[in-house]
């Protein structure tokens, strides 16, 4: 999982330089796929439930699962890229939201609040806490920043499959769910909207958008619970 995570992390780092006004979402996907294959690894998303690409590329009001295509990014857009890699049967899964050129203060605030909410949750990723302590911390931070938490999609356990138990909501009361224990591997992935939390799926059966058209951001890492500090496999 660490080997797989290293490649996922490197891709997300390099995308920061690649993502510029004028690039198509398909070009982002091509870079992701080419890099994974060049490492001798497998893109986890391609063919997953029939998903047609190696990356999910979600622009502006698109929350997650945007399908890459001919759309060109333009200055002021924000774009979320989600990448999954398989190495010798072991998965990693991570996402970032990038600013395309200069973006509005509201957009920059949303991206920052989403990333911060992940790190608030991470503070509870150790033995002695329960799973929903992570969820609750993410929600608290996102809502204090004036944003809302997507309810219909959640984080997940990860390992020999992309989606394992438990589901990890990014909201809810603390103190519930399983006790966190060394060896647990979790994909923690706040999906945060600037407006209402309500989302819907488009006609393509994949692209999730905000119902009110407000911006959405995503930040995800594959995390391992240890005796003390959690390991981040995708940074
Ligand atoms: N990273 C996403 C998740 O955590 C998976 C993308 S869905 C896929 O569920 F179909 F594209 F694989
Ligand atoms: Co995930």
Q: How would you characterize this protein structure?
A:
The chain has helices spanning 2-18, 25-38, 105-122, 131-144, and strands at 42-43, 55-59, 62-64, 78-87, 90-99, 148-149, 155-157, 164-168, 185-188, 191-193, 199-201, 208-210, 216-218, 221-224, 231-232. With 235 residues, the protein is α+β, with helices and mostly antiparallel strands. A five-stranded antiparallel sheet has the order 8-7-9-14-15. Strands 1, 2, 4 and 5 form a four-stranded antiparallel sheet that branches. Strands 3-12-11 form a three-stranded antiparallel sheet, with no helix packed on it. Strand 7 and strand 8 (164-168) form a beta hairpin. The longest helix has 18 residues, at 105-122. The structure holds 2-amino-4-trifluoromethylsulfanyl-butyric acid (MF3) and cobalt (II) ion. The site of cobalt (II) ion has 5 residues, from loops.
- Would you count the extended β strands for me? 15
Fraction of residues in β-strands:
25-35%
- Radius of gyration, in Å, reads 16 Å
Shape category: globular
Low-confidence stretches: none
Rounded mean pLDDT is: 98
H and E order? HHEEEEEHHEEEEEEEEEE
Protein structure class: alpha+beta
Ligands, ions, cofactors: 2-amino-4-trifluoromethylsulfanyl-butyric acid, cobalt (II) ion
Looking across the biggest beta sheet, what order are the strands in? 8-7-9-14-15
Sheet with most strands? 5 strands, antiparallel
- Measured between the Cα atoms of the first and last residue, the distance is 13 Å
DSSP summary: helix tally: 4
Helix proportion range: 25-40%
